[in-house]
Amino acid sequence: MDLSIYFDPIDVNDFRYAKKGNQKSLGARIIKNQSENLFPNLTGVDLALIGVGEERGQINNEGCGEGIDVIRDYFYDLYPGGYQPRIADLGNLKMGHNINDTYFALTAVCSELLDQNIIPIIIGGSQDLTYANYRAYEDLGQIINIVSVDNQFDLGEDEEDLNSRSYLSKIILHQPNFLFNYTNLGYQTYFADQDAIKLMNNLFFDTYRLGNVRANMEGVEPLVRNADMMSVDISAIRQTDAPGNNNTTPNGFYGEEMCQIARYAGLSDKMSSIGFYEYNPALDNNGQTAHLIAQMMWYFIDGYYNRMHDYPIDKKSNNYNKFMVKLSHQREEMVFFKSKKSDRWWMEVECAATVKAKYERHYLVPCSSQDYEKALEDDVPERWVQAYQKLM
Fold this sequence. Notes:
By secondary structure, the chain is α/β, with parallel strands linked by helices. The chain is built from 13 helices and 14 strands. Strands 1, 2, 3, 4, 5, 6, 7, 8, 9 and 10 form a ten-stranded mixed sheet that branches. It has a four-stranded antiparallel sheet with strand order 11-12-13-14. The longest helix is centred in the N-terminal third of the chain and has 17 residues, at 99-115.
């Protein structure tokens, strides 16, 4: 596929790194689409930046499609960590005649990148672009998990058009459905309808209130490690840390917490795409929000280049310790795996033989040492139950 037809080149002449002549920054080392006739060669590329200025699906955040290059400006001026970055910036996606054309283009681009094992990093635009990102996995026939960092669930109202507040409903209802699990990190109860909370529970989705997540940030790592794609709504960050969004509120994640979550995402062997949405430069304070998003991108990339590649595909490998726990009220023993490389944990969830091939990426669930300790106390970990209910 010729990806160049979907993109406009970018102009970096006014970017900070260019004015400084900084040859060691990310901006100098990223392969960029700067010319109509010189699209980046993706051979050997690990990650690809995609700017998407689409905001026709925004709700109460007009202008969120204008900040793509502002984020790039701060990102390009950062230095890479102790790795050789193999990153391409594909430029800015051309806007479609209508919003569905843009969705189609983004889906096609992400699908092609995923097929080449290149991770798309989407810089939005409004969060309904998450739907287009999800559709890319449908093209690959892959059942996936999504994690969203958001202060609400974005379920919308019945029969509502697809927008930044209803995209999740469209994903859930889309047929054929390729969503196995959805995880929300940081919802705030006063922004969530009680019926929506009940729906999330009935669907056996994982939802975590802001206070609970912030009280145990290490507990976020297994949740993120279980996801294939991540969607970040900037309104999930508290206003003082990220004022560049018209829907931001006094409460939310701190900037350093968001960077920690982004690094967890990068470290996950399973995570294959990520998007940052809803940045509005007109409301920003001296580029503070754009700079934070740039740092979140940096932490994701740093995590990627520090991946352990220790997902226990070969369960007989010497790279893992295997633990068997017999619970009094279960016929089968509960099986846990602990990586010798990273000390990370997984647990095996019972799955019918008839669907085991279909769900081969989902019955080995990332967990923590606390889940193992809970099993030792003759209690079934909650995340085991959640996964079991979906698998059966």
